[in-house]
Design goal:
441 residues; alpha+beta; Double Stranded RNA Binding Domain; DNA polymerase, domain 1; hpI Integrase, Chain A; four-stranded antiparallel beta sheet; 14% strand; disordered N terminus
Amino acid sequence: MSFGVQVGAWTSQIIDGTYVGICSCSFDWYQQMPLTDSAVRNARPSLEGKDIKLSDGGGLHLLIKPAGQKYWRLNYRYLGKQKTLALGVYPLVTLKDAREARDSAKKILFEGVDPSVHRQNSRAVSKEAAANSFEGVALEWMNVQQVKWSPSYAVKIQSCFDRDIFPYIGRRPVSEVTAPELLIVLRRIVARGAAETAKRARQCLGQVFRYAIATGRAERDPAADLKGALPPVRHQSFANISEPRRIGEVLRMFDSYQGSPVVCAALKLAPMLFVRPGNLRQAEWSEVDLDAATWRIPAEKMKMRQPHIVPLPTQAVELLRELKQLTGRRLDLQPYVFPSARAGGRPMSDNALLVAMRTMGIPKEELTAHGFRHMASTLLHEQGWDTDWIEVQLAHGDHSTRGKYNFAKYLKERTRMMQSWADYLDALRRGAEIIPINQRA
């Protein structure tokens, strides 16, 4: 309930028990009594399109804009000058919050400091602290490194930090993080059975600290002190087959598989080309030159970040020509050789080949999509092909002995090797009893 009395140029009103005076000339609001929560909540903008001020005393007032927004403001004088400090927006900042902010500002003013300047300095300190925190430095390091990371790898690194590292040491100043703190973080990862992830996390931590040293925000790398502190990682080879007779059986199973044409083609090409499964499913028609019988995988898709050439044997070219009639007709809409059957414009699922093999009754303990690489490496070495040719074709980067290889290195020799390998698989598929072993050039 409210009522008002006209007194000269003033209109007096009582709103919810609060005495309010309205100046008819400026429409500024002044109170002789403090505001109440209900008065603030029920206050309405001016019908004349002017700003309204509801005073709470001590320089604090609520500024109501014509559109209805409500802002807390504090008027004060510093060195003889009238100044205003913004204290927030109602209702995010309540009346109680605004009064506490007013009292804090008055204490700062009493000490001879301008509250506005004090706030600016505090924000600068907070911003600097955030930039020098471990999380701030790590995010900065990731931003620098992303130019040479694949999108999937960048997501993997970001997820690892968000899940396993930032919650525990993210807010710590990077210069104050200690080796024992890092060890506790990494042991949590090991405890959930992810020893390999813990090892990689330690390597990334070291890179973050080295970046912090380079940018003048740390003096040493505490991650270096953790060498030998984590349990060794037991590497397990991907399940694979190397017995020729069983390989022939699996290849015949692939030929008779009743799945989609895309998955069927991928099953046949996987052992023939023995590239990484991710490279196979993300292959794009723009990378494949069927006339030249080559598939050029760009560096950003490769694990070692170097472009890679896959010579295509005649069997692969024939299979891809047939598949192109199905998936290569509208490259502007669908660029992938093996597109997803469910999502347009996306590659085949990374589980597509695994699901197909399980459907055929091939257990995961016997063979995985990645196992074709081990299978090819084993048998090509047994057949006498040059190790360097095999390693380059597998896109293995041996930095300690061979250095970074030329992506076109041994291309003629590898082309001959890949054709021989495809012919060898054809012979196994037909059930040949005798397979030539010595194929050394």
